[in-house]
Amino acid sequence: MDLNAAITNLNTQILETQRKLTASEGDKAFLEKELKRLMGEKAELERQFNDLKVLRAQVAKLKEELTIARRLDWIRRGLFTSSVQRWKEYFGMD
Distance of CA 49 to CAs 35, 58, 75, Å? Predict the structure, then answer.
């Protein structure tokens, strides 16, 4: 949320700086430099945001792999089948 708000804020500042540059208000060289700086900040925040998405996807995949590994371990130990059997007996499904 914070990154989205920061990106939105930078977009607003970029648009305002572009508007001023087009209208030639103030020092044009300063406005061009400011525009490049703001666009660089935005690019960095977007990179961080994308890295966060990738990281979340990796964490989700690792959690899924851990769950599968645990189930396989339970099956090897015979715990998974006994718990399924108890569950079936409890609900009268066997």
Answer: 21, 14, 39
